Amino acid sequence: MWMWVRSAAIRPVPTFALVPREALELVEEWLGSDEATTEKRLNEIYGALETKQPLLAQRLSDAFAKCHDDVAEALGYFLGLTIYKAFEEAFDPLIDTVTSDALSSVEEALSLDEQLRGEDPAEAVDSDDVIAMEQPYVVAYIHEHLDTALEMHADNADVDAVHGIYRTLLVMVLALSYAVGAPKGGRFISEELQA
Question: Measuring CA to CA, how many Å separate 71 from each of 62, 103, 109, 153, 155?
Answer without folding.
Answer: 16, 25, 28, 8, 11
